[in-house]
Amino acid sequence: CPPPFFSSSMLGDVGRGEMTGDPEGALGVVTPEGAGSCEPWPDPQGEVLPTPVAGVGHHAGCRPCSDAHAAKILEAANSGLRPDLSRHGYRLAKRVFDVVASGAAIVVLLVPSLVLCAVICIKSPGSSPLYSQLRVGRLKKDGSYRLFRMWKFRSMVPRAEEMLEGLREANEADGPLFKIKDDPRIIPGVGTFIRRHSIDELAQLLNVLKGDMSLIGPRPALPSEVVQYDERVRRRLTVKPGCGGAWQVGTRSDSTFDGMVDLDLGYIERSSIACDLALVFQTIRTMIRGGGAY
């Protein structure tokens, strides 16, 4: 099991966001209909950085795109990597544990979840207490990208994603991540409590039971984040994403993007049943304490 922190390593120019069309096929990518092209974002010297990354025709230095746009690009792209399907005994044991633990947790948390749903509806009238986001899961066998719907308890006001573009300049995270400590989209009171203790993530037990996710693994990324990944960072996608993991029991939202990647790759290299069990209990403890999450 990896230690709480790894030394950060430079990822190169990961870039910022939106990918461009490739009509000449120079990047080996088929651009989906309606995907469009990116709007350049100059570097500090005023020059557009044209380096293609993520195997999807993305260009570093472009403005962030929407998740719907990014999903269209990923659906037609190949990562150039293959999922880690080795260690059959470990993966079978992990899947059995995921099914048993998530099923039991859903039963135990059913009544508290219904109470939480009622509180969310009261504090944010007209919005559903549950919502889903499109996320990128473990790569398919041929290296193409797997997309799935990840469930969450609502902690933000309705149409929060539509407000995102106007908040990008206030982003406090580095790399492809987007984080604001005092996010104005969060539902006052209950939303802050939900996010501090990561209660919104409990709905992902449904994804674990279904098989989209595991209890422990790298956090599932948004399509708009994955199109900014370089080859090293894409290694996060070779295993199932998880509800908790090495990053969650460390600095959580206070971590840098490089630090998160180091922790995830360290977990992938050293994963075991003993490591997973330790991270499950450490994740629960971190959720109760509520430090580093926003």
Strand content: 5-15%
Order of helices and strands: EEHHHEEHHEHHEHH
Spatial gap, N to C terminus: 26 Å
Shape: globular
- Multimeric organization: single chain
The helix content is 25-40%
Blueprint of the fold:
Elements: E1 52-53, E2 58-59, H1 67-75, H2 88-108, H3 110-123, E3 130-136, E4 147-153, H4 190-196, H5 205-210, E5 214-216, H6 223-226, H7 231-234, E6 242-244, H8 257-270, H9 273-289
Parallel strand pairs: 5-6
Antiparallel strand pairs: 1-2, 3-4
Summarize the entry for a quick read:
The protein is built from nine helices and six strands; from the N terminus they run E-E-H-H-H-E-E-H-H-E-H-H-E-H-H. With 294 residues, it is of the alpha+beta class.
Keywords:
8% strand; two-stranded antiparallel ribbon; 9 helices; alpha+beta; 294 residues; single chain
Structural account:
The structure is a single chain. The protein has 294 residues and is of the alpha+beta class. The protein is 33% helix and 8% strand. The protein has helices spanning 67-75, 88-108, 110-123, 190-196, 205-210, 223-226, 231-234, 257-270, 273-289, and strands at residues 52-53, 58-59, 130-136, 147-153, 214-216, 242-244. The strands form three sheets. Strands 1-2 form a two-stranded antiparallel sheet. A two-stranded antiparallel sheet has the order 3-4.
